[in-house]
């Protein structure tokens, strides 16, 4: 008993404390109610109740949901053949306004389309269904998540009264400018089709009699050459436009140019030995070649008309390129070649320790040969003396033979150009001439004359260059210490004088030393003298 009383007492105390604490610290508890209520359709409108086959109609709905919010609405139409095939999704577009589109042409039936039912649902998948009582019956029946009502005001009468095909136009554009009839980069084709009634269903095209394809907003064509693009449109009523076509030409590729080189003489290694003829061959598969241009050694660009001849010796650089009728130009190409048409030029230099006179040398002659070839360079120089053996020239050589020597020489370059044989005459006379002479007195014409006429007979010879001249050098009385120049008359010194007069002394014999000099054509000379005794009045003998 005591324990029961004690227990009751404790229970009462606990309740008392709980009661007190409830006033001291009140606590509010809030719990969100679950969303179990479907949305509500407040208003539904359709654009019109009559349409052509293939047309599309817009539907608008006002929907509300007090909790989780409207997710969407689906409208189910029965097609004229009685099937529930037409399904329209109505989705949120602006605040509380939902929109969908009924594609009438999608189903291809004429007649009256009636709503079978409408399904509305929120974000928690609470559904509310409205059935068309005109189709299903049960007018006025209503439940928690459904109702039956007449929805005949949303019937759509579809008729095929569109007998006009669409009209399609096209526009061609390209990144690069068109030149004449030719495009030079891919072509973008834009189609614009118009159909006022059932509207355009699709646009079809084909290229160069190929397979028909449907156009989807963008078409880029890159087929080079002459092309034919055919196109047509189909509306939702099934009207097919008569096929149209547009022709265009596309050339994206530059010409290809090749060149061939020819020469009248065979090529030696890297060198041509005559003028070089260039023949350009350019090809272009589409718009064809308009022109080929070239330039030689960085000069002016010129149009190649037929063959081109390059005559310049040395290393040549020819650049060339071609342009087609669409304006495409190939990258400049380069060909290099070398020409050496002319033989080397050999020169000679003659030297001697003694002076030359009248083309004659008085001593040995050193011959040096110089050779020049500005292009392929000299390969070899040869020479020979007096029809002897040809010898390669490596250094200067000496000609020693007296007389007229013939030195022949020529050079050849590294491409085989051979110089015409040249020759030079080397005349050498190292020997003195020979000289002899006699003196003869003649009688005086007057008995009183003290002057004795003298005649000299001079004989001069030279076996090599020949005698050039002789001259009277001097006439000196002997002994000279008693002589006077006035003892000689009519003598021309330094000239070829052979007659002169010498003074005689009465009843005495006087002597004179007569000197002559002879010189050959090389300048070698020799002198000789003789003594002659003259007497006074030889006529008395």
Strand content: over 45%
Overall 3D shape: rod-shaped
Q: What would you say the CATH architecture of the largest domain is?
A: Sandwich
List segments where confidence is low: pLDDT < 50 over at least 5 consecutive residues: 1-8, 14-30
Total number of strands:
42
When the domains are counted, the total is: 5
**Which CATH class of the largest domain is shown?**
Mainly Beta
| Assembly state of the chains shown | single chain
CATH-assigned fold name of the largest domain: Immunoglobulin-like
Question: Tell me about the biggest sheet?
Answer: 10 strands, mixed
SS element count, helices: 2
Helix content: under 10%
Give Rg in angstroms: 67 Å
Please, what is the average pLDDT?
88
Report how far apart the termini are: 230 Å
**CATH H level of the largest domain: which superfamily?**
Macroglobulin (MG2) domain
Please identify the structural class as seen in this structure: mainly beta
């Amino acid at each position: 008993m005591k324990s029961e009383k004690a227990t009751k007492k404790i229970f009462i105390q606990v309740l008392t404390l709980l009661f007190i604490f409830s006033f001291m610290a009140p606590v509010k508890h809030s719990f969100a109610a679950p969303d179990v209520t479907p949305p509500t359709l407040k208003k539904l409108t359709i654009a019109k109740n009559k349409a052509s086959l293939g047309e599309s109609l817009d539907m608008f709905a006002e929907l509300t949901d007090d909790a989780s919010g409207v997710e969407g609405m689906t409208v189910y139409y029965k097609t004229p053949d009685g099937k529930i095939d037409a399904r329209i999704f109505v989705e949120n577009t602006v605040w509380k306004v939902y929109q969908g589109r009924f594609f009438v042409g999608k189903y291809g039936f004429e007649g009256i389309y009636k709503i079978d039912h409408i399904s509305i649902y929120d974000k928690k998948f609470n559904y509310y269904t409205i059935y068309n009582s005109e189709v299903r019956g049960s007018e006025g029946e209503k439940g928690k998540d459904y109702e039956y009502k007449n929805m005949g005001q949303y019937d759509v009468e579809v008729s095929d009264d569109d007998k006009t095909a669409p009209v399609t136009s096209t526009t061609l554009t390209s990144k690069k400018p068109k030149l004449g009839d030719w495009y030079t980069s891919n072509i973008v084709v834009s189609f614009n089709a118009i159909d006022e009634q059932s509207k355009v269903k699709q646009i079809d095209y084909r290229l160069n009699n190929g397979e028909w394809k449907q156009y989807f907003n963008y078409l880029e064509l890159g087929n080079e050459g002459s092309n034919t693009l055919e196109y047509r449109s189909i509306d939702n009523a099934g009207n097919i436009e008569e096929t149209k076509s547009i022709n265009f030409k596309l050339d994206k590729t530059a010409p290809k140019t090749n060149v061939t080189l020819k020469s009248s003489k065979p090529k030696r290694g890297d060198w041509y030995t005559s003028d070089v003829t260039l023949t350009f061959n350019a090809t272009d598969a589409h718009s064809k070649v308009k022109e080929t241009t070239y330039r030689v050694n960085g000069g002016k660009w010129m149009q190649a008309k037929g063959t081109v001849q390059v005559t310049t010796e040395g290393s040549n650089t020819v650049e060339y390129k071609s342009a087609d009728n669409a304006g495409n130009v190939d990258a400049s190409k380069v060909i290099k070649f070398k020409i050496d048409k002319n033989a080397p030029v050999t020169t000679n230099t003659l030297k001697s320790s003694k002076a030359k006179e009248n083309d004659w040398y008085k001593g040995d002659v050193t011959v040096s040969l110089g050779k020049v070839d500005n292009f392929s360079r000299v390969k070899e120089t040869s020479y020979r003396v007096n029809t002897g053996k040809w010898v390669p020239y490596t250094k200067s050589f000496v000609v020693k033979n007296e007389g007229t020597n013939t030195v022949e020489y020529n050079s050849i370059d590294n491409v085989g150009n051979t110089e015409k044989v040249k020759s030079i005459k080397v005349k050498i006379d190292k020997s003195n001439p020979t000289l002899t002479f006699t003196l003869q007195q003649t009688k005086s014409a007057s008995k009183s004359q003290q002057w004795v006429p003298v005649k000299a007979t001079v004989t001069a010879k030279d076996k090599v260059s020949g005698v050039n001249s002789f001259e009277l050098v001097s006439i000196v009385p002997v002994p000279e210490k008693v002589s006077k120049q006035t003892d000689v008359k009519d003598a021309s010194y330094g000239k070829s004088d052979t007659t002169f007069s010498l003074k005689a002394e009465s009843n005495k014999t006087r002597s004179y030393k007569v000197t002559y000099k002879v010189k050959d054509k090389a300048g070698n000379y020799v002198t000789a003298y003789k003594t002659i005794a003259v007497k006074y009045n030889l006529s008395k003998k």
